[in-house]
Write the structure tokens for this entry.
Amino acid sequence: EWRERGVVCNALRASAVLRGKSRQTKAAALEYGRARTSADLIVVLDADAVVEEDYLAKIVPYFYDERGERRSEVAVVQPDVTFKNSSQNFLTMHQAFKMEADAIVGNRAYIRAFGCALRPGSGAIWSAAALRAVGGWDVNMLALEGTDMSMRTRMAGYSGKAAANVIIETELPSTLSAYKSQQLRWMWAWAYLAKRHLASVLFNSFNGVTSDIGIGVLNGNVARLWFALTIVRPAQWLLLA
């Protein structure tokens, strides 16, 4: 129909790639798609995500400076997150209160202190060059693949940014069984991240470990310790088991 009207439908070079009946991880699907695109920027959206009409117009400029030149050091930009079912029941209200604080306030603090977005999830937009530089997504990550990628790109010299003027809506688990399943996956993922990245955070050099976060300039070693504790804390029960 659109072609009959003279519209060139493939001008945006958009296509859908289906992997069939695959039981592999989300990270494996992301890597499958990344390896098959020539795009400079890659957006990650979950199936339940709702974005604003001007989402791309607002978030893409974070990859450019005031002169319109590309900021090659920026690996990821994460928008603010809200939850469309936050008032569904007590469980979703509890999650929304905690996760909005973590995703919005916490993420901004991590970015300003370490240049690293610790919780880039649905709605995050990534630099394809940064993803290639660290070897792409780790297909073995069962969850928190965005956190793993953010830390890997940070250690490679890239940084993350928070887009406070961009909002994405997503959903929370609304039943206790779904919530418990999600939390267990996340705890195992945090334990894996701690095992994988803790030594690098504490001992390897990477730029920008000190930064003004509104209360003064953090000492480099204090910043590293805070960063390390941030990684370990969500998985503490598994690590102590």
Summary: The helical segments are 26-34, 55-59, 90-114, 128-133, 145-155, 176-203, 220-232, 236-240. The first strand starts at residue 41 and ends at 43. The mean pLDDT is 77.
